[in-house]
Design a protein that fits this description.
The protein has four helices and no strands. With 86 residues, it is mostly helical. The longest helix has 19 residues. The N and C termini lie far apart (41 Å).
């Protein structure tokens, strides 16, 4: 198994990924994406965390508001998690 390169943290990775994809770093709200992934993984299904981040990106790319969409996906995760306990 390969090891994580020394000296690379989330900030560095995000900066490099934005540069690689030609995205303005200011457009990326890492905390919002991590919060969404945490809520989906905790309340719905763990593998849904990266899928939800991808879906959020698709919806934002089509003109949606990132915060509103993240809130909707978070609400969905909570609803699905609650229905699991019924």
């Amino acid at each position: 198994m390969s090891e994580r390169p020394k000296g690379v943290d989330l900030h560095d990775f995000t900066d490099a990924a934005c540069a690689e994809l030609g995205l303005p770093r200011a457009d990326v709200d890492v905390t919002m994406v991590l919060d969404l992934a945490r809520e989906v993984a905790h309340h719905a299904v763990r593998p849904g965390a990266p899928v939800s981040a991808y879906l959020l990106g698709l919806a934002v790319g089509r003109g949606g508001d990132p915060r509103e969409l993240a809130a909707r996906l978070t609400g969905l995760a909570h609803r699905l998690g609650a229905s699991d306990q019924d």
